[in-house]
Amino acid sequence: MVLYKLEDFDPNYRDTLQGDDIKGLGVYTERNNEKIGTVNDVLVDDDGHFRYLIVDLGFWIFGKKVLLPVGRTRIDHGTDRVYAVGMTREQAENLPEFDERLSLDQDYEERVRGVYRNPNYSTQPLDTSTPLETRTPVEAPLGTTPAYTRDTYKYEQEPSLYGLNEPHHETMKLYQERLIASKRRQKTGEVTVGKHVETETARVAVPLERERVVVERVTPENAGRVVSPGEANFRESEVTRIELHEETPDIRKEAVVREEVRVKKVVEQDTVQAEDTIRREELDVNTSGLPVEER
Length: 295
Fold this sequence. Notes:
Layout: E1 4-5, H1 6-9, H2 13-16, E2 26-29, E3 35-44, E4 50-56, E5 65-69, E6 73-76, E7 81-84, H3 89-93, H4 106-117, H5 159-162
Parallel strand pairs: 2-7
Antiparallel strand pairs: 1-3, 2-3, 3-4, 4-5, 6-7
């Protein structure tokens, strides 16, 4: 069972309570009207039911806070006071200290309940001889310890601690509607990114070299000179060979990376205004001539 502070459970709890904020009210004993402390906060369950008042004893015990079950309280809005039914100031001092930094588990709640179950608010240590896991949930008479398990215990089993049906009070709940804004995600479209192949004709210029033979016939400067015997060698079929070369284009294709495309999406935020008609219940009091005080 998870418990929440009042404002954590309902940030608009003051509107729900019609402005009757219980925080800050003084806590007093019923017997001698002696102040015990101040209401620091309220703990509620998952259904919003009040379960405990967090009472700050700071004005006479520095920094100590204790839990007061709502069934042991009586609220007087006329005097802005909360009365702790059957409690004395000394008994409040001996209650288990409530530490907001620690989780509120069943063992701690059982220590608190063990104190209040005793008609004299006994502060003797709770009998832990029976393992908690083996107990069975029953409503026990005042002054005894009811059995329970962590999984099955319900606050309704102990109306003496958590019940609010006092014989001198009638409760009427006034309801009102409020707008709840939520969001839902829906598909608005789809973007497809792909690729296709386009062709084009590319031209490239390649310089080529080609060899050719040039035969030049020239008259030497000593033309007509008489050569010595044996210098002239007349031979038939004398041939000079010269190889000719030329370049031809060698054209081929290769693939290269031209560019990269990165696809991503970004979220844009916008605020829309919505309105609707809501209802609220108001109290109608028909006094019929009787003296009725409305607080």
